[in-house]
Amino acid sequence: MLSVTGANRGVGLALVQDLLEHKPSAVVFAGVRKIDSLKTGDKLKDLADKYGDRLNLVQLSSTSVEDAREVGKVILDKAGKLDVVIANAGIMTGHSPILSVPLEDMRNHFEVNTLGPLILFQGTAQALFKSQSPKFAVISSGGASLGQLFDQPITAYATSKVGVNMIAARINQEHEKENLAAFALHPGVVETDMSAGHEFSPDFKIITPQESAQSILKYVDGATRSSAGGKFWSAPDDAEIPW
Ligand SMILES: NC(=O)c1ccc[n+]([C@@H]2O[C@H](COP(=O)([O-])OP(=O)(O)OC[C@H]3O[C@@H](n4cnc5c(N)ncnc54)[C@H](OP(=O)(O)O)[C@@H]3O)[C@@H](O)[C@H]2O)c1
Question: Pfam family example for this protein (predicted)?
């Protein structure tokens, strides 16, 4: 039983597709911000029609406490437990230097990228605690590393991802009793709407959403509390990132 947020496009959609195609036992709860606007011809909707009970689409806005609670309840009712959450939904809007970054940008990024996964954890915790070895993976960004600062003015985005890294670390720290592994993952520099139009240094390898999803799922699959709990990891590089 898995839950993936931001599932209608980008890395989230690739995660859902990979799970359905390559993990026959997986039952997926896919969070979508505007579920009512999904229509036939949209990839996620077509996957839901094809895979039936294995793919459950759920209304989930990252900023809604009610949505997260409702999703937790639906999963408990339908599946009785939740093994994995992948908190993938996120935004990166605008690149501003520290001198001029609008506070509104800071707040918006914090709401979605930092508080979103926190709300999601709070809403799904009871379902996660029913699993023998629950995992809570936060899709963060290498841009949040304080030990390897990016040479780009991604102030609002990076600050919000530093915040969510701490959320992942705290979840891990406080839930040893439940054998829960919480960790932060960098998905790579991925060809999605989020990265479109940005110039990346030639040092960065740009990967497809499918490649990113494969590397994330490989890591999540093998993750245990002792191997992955409390780590900040680059999935495509299979390497630890300094916090
Ligand atoms: N792409 C990269 O190079 C890269 C690099 C490092 C980290 N990341 C991280 O990887 C994750 C996925 O990024 P991506 O590249 O796939 O981005 P994307 O293509 O822009 O997709 C973002 C997803 O998040 C959802 N979302 C945004 N705001 C939301 C909200 N308030 N509530 C619920 N869902 C919301 C979007 O839903 P809507 O369609 O409704 O907007 C969409 O499904 C993000 O956390 C991002 O920060 C990406």
Answer: adh_short
